[in-house]
Design a protein that fits this description.
CATH class of the largest domain: Alpha Beta
Strand content: 5-15%
CATH topology of the largest domain: Rossmann fold
Shape: elongated
Number of strands: 14
Bound molecules: adenosine monophosphate
Helix content: 25-40%
Number of domains: 2
Length: about 475
């Protein structure tokens, strides 16, 4: 039993953890916390939803407890820990968790990300904060404005590092890291260890301890993955049918482009489905509103692009749809990681048209699983007595009368992973990170930037309104 009590955390941290309702440590926590407490660098491969935020936040806070003080002087509260994340939503989420863990200590934390007025962030930074959570671009703005001073940073966390590189944050990261003292602890978390990530680690980490809780490039076995052979024009119809047939209450729907995202959301809205779009062209306010509406259960389908959705910690999303197969196979892992979190059952449905063959093969290679491509018979076609001949399907060889109903792919064996087969379970009764109890929200809400609304309780997605 990996109990938090083994860690001998400061009583004020232990109290906050107990209040979150965590009973035992998740595998990444059990492995990473002692290493971070010992001051070593860490290179961690962990999927989102594994509890990695606590895995780095708790030991960092523990190590900073010696600096806590009640002085009002900003000089007594220099930035000592810096957490960098690729997206605003993710930064906001991590900052909220840090606030909750630190709520009984005198350590201060703040979050800065773009798309928001700089003034309230500046005011908060000027008062002094020990833990600064940030996206790279906005942090550089604050560094230039001299509101973020990083010469006393002892710990830096590069979270979702692979995504930061995908977005093109490498030059920003390099600049930020150049402002930090050489003597520091660096923690790098990434869902995958690509060669670029390894190079980044080699440049900035010193003798890191490598921690892997789920093998990199592996999907969770709690997620049932289905691939359907669907022509481009039929994808929306297929989505609606599967949602209806399977009684799916809420889902993330992924598309590859911002334009496609907006178009699909509008079309589904016209079809009478409650949808919201989440993509990079939406203002920060619109994005937070869309998320909030989804969490409250006012929206059933959240249509998103990869960058906008990365790392969103929304519990128990029953299903994820890939309307477009992602260009980058690693995004497939990130996308379907939105469902089946923390051991819950999840469903990931992908629609592949004839032009997606190469992308599906890339996913097969990365996840090391065989993908069976299924045919979907449409309800309205069935009613009209039509059968799906596969005419608009995968293998466009229309001369073949004997079109097989399945593709050349053979059935996918269920991936097993000891970690995911024995998941930790969040307490039913107690609040957890993104689902703070009303009292927790209130206290968190007071602490964070006035521009960031505290998260409300997430709708229990499998239930109806009584859970709201
Ligand atoms: P993360 O991977 O950090 O995004 O965490 C995913 C979710 O798991 C968050 O909502 C956390 O509050 C929750 N969580 C983190 N650690 C634990 C734990 N030891 N037991 C139960 N839930 C946890």
């Amino acid at each position: 039993m990996n109990s938090f009590s083994q860690l001998q955390l400061d009583p004020n941290l232990a109290k906050a953890v107990a209040e979150m309702g965590y009973e035992s440590m998740t595998p990444i926590q059990a492995q990473a916390i002692p290493v971070v407490l010992s001051g070593q660098d860490v290179m961690g491969a962990a999927q989102t939803g594994t509890g990695k935020t606590a895995a780095f936040s708790l030991p960092l806070l523990q190590r900073m407890i010696k600096h806590e003080n009640g002085s009002t002087s900003p000089a007594r509260h220099p930035v000592r820990a810096l957490v960098l994340l690729p997206t605003r939503e993710l930064a906001d989420q991590v900052a909220q968790q840090v606030k909750m863990y630190a709520k009984y200590t005198q350590l201060r934390s703040a979050v800065v990300f773009g798309g928001m007025d700089m003034k309230p962030q500046t005011a908060e930074l000027k008062r002094g904060v020990e833990v600064l959570v940030a996206t790279p671009g906005r942090l550089l703005d604050h560094i230039e404005a001299k509101t973020a001073v990083l010469n006393q940073v002892e710990y830096v966390v590069l979270d979702e590092a692979d995504r930061m590189l995908d977005i093109g944050f490498l030059p920003d990261l390099q600049r930020i890291l150049s402002y930090l003292p050489k003597q520091r602890t660096t923690l790098l978390f990434s869902a995958t260890f690509s060669p670029e990530i390894k190079r980044l680690a080699a440049s900035y980490l010193q003798n890191p301890v490598t921690i892997e809780v789920a093998r990199p490039n592996q999907t969770a076995s709690t997620v049932t993955q289905l691939f359907y052979n669907v022509a481009e024009d039929d994808k929306r119809r297929a989505l609606k049918q599967i949602v209806k047939e399977r009684g799916i209450s809420q889902a993330f729907v992924f598309v590859n482009s911002k334009l496609g995202c907006a178009r699909l959301a509008r079309a589904l809205e016209r079809d009478g489905l409650r949808t919201a779009a989440l993509h990079g062209d939406k203002s920060q306010d619109e994005r937070l509103k869309a998320l909030e509406a989804f969490k409250k259960g006012e929206v059933d389908l959240l249509i998103c692009t990869d960058v906008a959705a990365r790392g969103l910690d929304i519990k128990d999303v029953p299903a994820v749809f890939n309307i477009d197969i992602p260009y980058n196979a690693e995004d497939y892992i990130h996308r379907i990681g939105r469902t089946g979190r923390a051991g819950a059952e999840g469903l990931a449905v992908s629609f592949a048209s004839s032009s997606d063959q190469r992308l599906v093969t890339d996913i097969e290679k990365l996840t090391k699983q065989k993908i069976e491509l299924l045919n979907l018979s449409f309800e309205d076609d069935r009613q009209r007595g039509r059968t799906n001949t596969g005419r608009r399907q995968w293998d466009d060889d229309s001369s073949s009368e004997e079109k097989p109903s399945r593709s050349r792919f053979t059935p996918a064996p269920k991936v097993t992973d000891p970690f995911f087969d024995k998941p930790y379970e969040a307490s039913e009764t107690a609040p957890s990170g993104d689902v703070p109890a009303a009292s927790t929200v209130a206290s968190v809400g007071r602490g964070i930037s006035p521009n960031i609304k505290p998260k409300r309780k997430v709708a229990a997605l499998f239930k109806t309104t009584e859970s709201l």
